[in-house]
Amino acid sequence: MNTAPSPAGTPADLALPVTDPALAARLRERMEVVEEALTAHAVSRAPYVTEAARHLLAAGGKRFRPLLVLLAAEVGEHPENDDVVTAACVVELTHMGSLYHDDVMDEAELRRGSDSANARYDNLVAILTGDFLFARSSELTARLGPEAVRIQAETFARLVEGQILETVRPEPERALEHHLEVVAGKTGSLIATSARYGGMFGGASPEVVQALTAYGEIVGSAFQLSDDILDIASDSVESGKTPGTDLREGVPTLPMLLAQASADPADARLVELLGQPLTDDALHAEALALLRAHPALEQARAYVVDRAAEAKALLAALPEGSVRSALESFADIVAVRSA
Hints:
Blueprint: H1 21-41, H2 47-58, H3 64-73, H4 82-106, E1 110-111, E2 114-115, H5 117-120, H6 123-143, H7 146-165, H8 175-202, H9 206-233, H10 236-239, H11 245-249, H12 254-260, H13 268-274, H14 281-293, H15 295-314, H16 322-338
Antiparallel strand pairs: 1-2
Organism: Nocardioides nanhaiensis
Keywords: Magnesium, Metal-binding, Transferase
InterPro entries: Isoprenoid_synthase_dom_sf, Polyprenyl_synt, Polyprenyl_synt_CS
């Protein structure tokens, strides 16, 4: 999930749309505690390892996943439970570890406006640093008890499976299903666990925890899929991203896959373009224009809007109030940014 960076240690702007001033103040205060804890958990006996492990932490980020843990905990009877902060650190350290591995797989040079770890150090250091952060996350999970260990193990397996599947070229008839599996594994799984942990350790009822988990899975995947749409439809000035970046790099996205599945003879040129490298500027511009005009773009938008509505409906299990409103507003944002 792509979010704009914010300075490390200063969570003044929350990554979720919280309009209740009292709730927002509590979350900012708790996020400061999480931020301090994350810095402490990234310490190794070897200064060089500490430096590498803190590299991406220092680059900042919206800290969406730990914030979701804290917000979900607010529907429980004891949101101030120390285990909530521990769980918030678990999901963020897991996410951070995955970013180190992601950058190696993508051969990325930048992450959050700074040098990626593999660019600053090398691939081996980046991979092992990611492993170190996963180990720290596992240590913290053990403090939360056997059920949390089981959930974390299942989540981590799904995340890694998603990363591996991303490197596999599926059969053409399974391309769309495959992409959705990748997104669910890489993004939906950990966001689902973030919401689940918050409900669990905040003392919410099993029904509410189940609803939060399902909400996180769906809205997390939908948010990532909305990035697919923005890659094609966005204006570079508004999004800060060059349109068609994924298209140029041959990264599968929801609109591309829907267009490629077309059997309409009128789409033959677009299908031909999408089946080849688009490093040539003229071919890239042609493919981008055709894809923007293709019904696949609206189909992708409709899919994301439906998923966001599905996630929002699950929140009926939560008591009415500022927490539910914030989660509903986030689902609305997912729908709007794809519309």
